[in-house]
Amino acid sequence: MRINLNYKFYVIPNYHMKLTRREFVKLSGLVTVGTLVSYKARSISSFAEDMLQPYLNPMEERFIPSVCLQCPAGCGILVRVVNGKAVKIEGNPLSPLNRGGVCPKAHIGLHILYDPDRIKGPMIRNERKSNNWKSISWKEAIRIVAERLSELRKNGEPHKFVWMDGRVRGNMGDFISRFMKAYGSPNKIGHSNTCSDTVEIAHYLVQGHKHYLGYDFARTNYILVFGGGLIEAWRPTTRLLRIYGHIRRERANRVKIVVVDPRLTTSATKADEWLPIKPGTDGALALALANVIINEGLYDKDYVNAHVYGFNEYREIVQEYTPEWASKITGIPSDTIVRVAREFATTKPAIAAGQRGAMMWSNGAYNYMAIHTLNALVGSIGVPGGIIVQKGPPFKEWPEIEKDTIAEEGLKNVRIDLAGTEEYPFAKNNQTGVTDALLTGKPYMPKIVMTYYNNALFSHPEIERVYKAFEKVEFAISTSPFMSEFEENVADIILPEDTYLERWHDDKVYPSLGYPYAGMRQPVVEKVHDTQNAGDVLLMLAKELGELGHTSVARSMPWNSYVDVLKYRWSGIFESKRGRVGPIPVSSFSTFGEFWNALLKYGYWADPPYKFYDWEHEFKTETGKFEIYSLKIKHKLEELAEEKSKKEGISIEEAKEKLLEKWNIKARGDKVFLPHWEEPLIAGDEKEYPFILNSYKLMTHAEGRGANSPWMLEHISPYFMDIKYESWVEINPEDATRLGINNHDEVIIENPKGYKIKTIAILFEGARPGVVNMPFELGHKAYGRWARGIGANPNEVIIDEWNGKYLRERFSASVNYFATRVKIYRGDSIG
Ligand code: SF4
Fold first, then answer.
1. Distance CA 798, CA 683 (A)
2. 68 Cα–ligand 1 center, Å
3. Nearest to 345, CA basis, from 318, 379, 371
4. How many angstroms separate the CA atoms of 523 and 504, rounded?
5. Alpha helices, DSSP H only, in 331-431?
6. In what order do the strands lie in the sheet with 584-585?
């Protein structure tokens, strides 16, 4: 790895510049003498010139810092640009986040940038699903969209404009929210309920932080992972791979890793122990571990006394959750549960961490509260080697948003996804709720939908239902650079975005380092097509709306370009004088210009180190402690019950009962506020549909865009090397033999609603009997040439709504990607 702080190299280091005319003639002469005999017909100087041509016109090679966007981790990268073409992506060696490393996904930024199937400029069509697209100018496109938005506002319906997004990194999320608020819609709806929201909500319920937490993996001694691909699909993969090497090989004491997962994942193969748990029962295991830790007196008494609220109530509750009880539910032997509990509590510091496999169930928040409580019991939160709460950069405060009466009135409407209402009381987003609203008209019908990094027609469960819903949208705007499922079937107009290597776009670190860190994407090449940064599109729309009379919207977005927005926000970091840009202390810059130039040179700012034992920072709760007894749930239930009793004229107790029933919570009394066991909702009858379909993420495809990269498709599976450009379903060999299914047979997977997909069977000992595993990423019916028509998408058979109930998590609205029973049989045609 070359390290050059100027990030500028030449393939042939400026050789020709040093060659004087006299030297050139001399060299020509030498070359001539050696070749005169065989090349006598040729002019001496022309031959020499040919020989020297590559040196006379050297290519310019630059390494330009930016930030990867193949997942939300935000690793620093250097893009090698030769004569204006991006040719390679490497890790930025100075970035403390990834220290020069990148995971396989980083490289495909080049595929996205130069993909021949990119949308080349703004387009419009008159008829849905027709391929009759017409290219238009940006001026026309902005005018058309602004007029539609203006009309909606003038009709007093700004709340019927719904923004659906995915990867909003850095300041982009706040910026979009700002536009939506000034416009008058409460409906900026992120994708997070299709991600791992329950983890964040569970953190909030017990620790007061509604976001992911960081883990000091490098200094821990024991890692207990529930339902997450620690080294293949966790974020940042790059950092975790490096830390894995450190804690397993480099350190004197080797960290013990135990993976709890129904599938033998890559992380499980690299762990000391794999506990193949029954899907959806991770909470039962965590409760039994707590039972052993508490009853054997292995918990950290000083820590619990000082920093835990509700310990005595929890001690009482866990008595029923014995290892024997948990063994029947989870399938993990009781003596294993006892041993793991003892190891976890006595090998300090220890970390219990989990991800979507354990949480994206109807009982997910209670599951994760139980898992995270293990950390509190052994005193691991806020200490070296334990759990840390990521800090953010000191960006400058946003200016006030100006709202006219239309905006004020629009914002009074309930969110269309019902996030934060009694339906999903702690949810941040319920993007799948947009489908519900379109199908039921409740709470109201969306009229205009605009998407950014979003493709509900591929990523949401029960896709047929989603297709039916989005047909009803009156006007759909997409910012996608690709003609994916949403664009092909729903979009009326496309305002294609730059790829991340062509635009300005910052990034705040994904929870990992603990201390604040932020990176800056700058355009590394000229735009390949006639595309725009979506930030600039919003500014253009705001201006156009201003011209159409919505002046408060325009005044709320007072910047000329999105890079100006970034400069505005980053001036807060400059003014704070905190941290360093690369190696340079911010306090040494005398002007913002100097600070900004350094930022573009090094690509990131950071303010280490993390301050441990800062309890006020760690516990943002009413008691200032870790609340095993969640006052957040208690108060929310009281607040909603009071509203409901007034609205429905019933007693508060009756209202509470109705709410608990709505949330499908069987427990009563204090148990409701404590981690406890609730059966997960699962669609389908076990006799007829004997398998649970477990969809999982691969390292190559962890975040969705690898499906359109030949490099990723060549290396799709870490285990089954003969599989390329294809998806598959893993089935335990005993199950397969019973069903007469052989390795590589074509099989049909059918769910209880009759939806079917076809794929190939792989007999795999790492599949738990009764569970079939299928990677999520392939099965596109649109998108680029590499993705279209390859493999099958498990989301087509994953059920979202069952017997009139949604299978989503009761508090967070997280989609349940694992709670569908299926049958599987040989067949080469869906029929
Ligand atoms: S971990 Fe994420 S951000 Fe880092 S290199 Fe891999 S894909 Fe890019």
1. 9
2. 6
3. 379
4. 6
5. 334-346, 356-359, 364-377, 405-411
6. 505-508, 517-521, 604-606, 580-581, 584-585
Question: 505-544 burial, b if ≥16 CB within 10 A, otherwise e?
Answer: bbbbbbbbbbbbbbbbbbbbbeebeebbbbbbbbbbbbbb
Residue 801 structure tokens: 């709504």
Same domain? For 178 and 245 the reply is no
Alpha carbon of 582 to ligand 1 centroid (Å): 19
Q: Residue 679 C-alpha to ligand 1 middle, in angstroms?
A: 36
The predicted structure's pLDDT at residue 824 = 98
Q: Which amino acid is at 242?
A: R
pLDDT digits (tens, 9 = 90+) for 661-689: 999 999 999 999 999 999 999 999 999 99
Going by CA atoms, what residue is nearest to atom 5 of ligand 1?
A: 102
Expressed in angstroms and rounded, the spacing between residue 72 Cα and the centre of ligand 1 is 7
Spatial distance between the Cα atoms of 573 and 567, rounded to a whole number of angstroms:
10
**Per-residue pLDDT at 25:** 43
CATH of the domain at 54: 2.20.25.90
Determine the Cα–Cα distance for residues 688 and 447; give it in Å rounded to an integer: 41
Residue 762 Cα to ligand 1 midpoint, Å, equals: 29
3-state secondary structure of 11: coil
Parent domain of 657? 644-672
Residue 617 lies in a domain: no
Nearest atom, ligand 1, residue 105 CA: 7
Cβ count near 119 (within 10 Å) = 23
Q: How far is the CA of 827 from the centre of ligand 1 (A)?
A: 38
Give the number of the atom of ligand 1 that is nearest the alpha carbon of residue 238: 1
CA 557 vs. chain centroid, Å, equals 27
Percentage of the chain exceeding pLDDT 90: 86
In the chain, the amino acid numbered 750 is: E
538 and 400 co-located in one domain: yes
In a domain, 603, yes or no: no
The reported pLDDT for the residue numbered 195 is 87
Residue 137 CA, chain-centre distance (Å), reads: 33
Q: Is 102 in the pocket of ligand 1 (CB under 6 A)?
A: yes
pLDDT in tens, 237-280: 999 999 999 999 999 999 999 999 999 999 999 999 999 999 99
371 CA distance to ligand 1 middle (Å):
27
Our answer on whether the CB atom of 104 is closer than 6 Å to any ligand 1 atom is no
For a pocket test of ligand 1, which of 102, 169, 508, 509 has the largest count of ligand atoms closer than 8 A to its C-beta? 102
Is there an atom of ligand 1 within 6 Å of 237 CB?
Answer: yes
What is residue 7's predicted lDDT score, i.e. its pLDDT?
Answer: 37
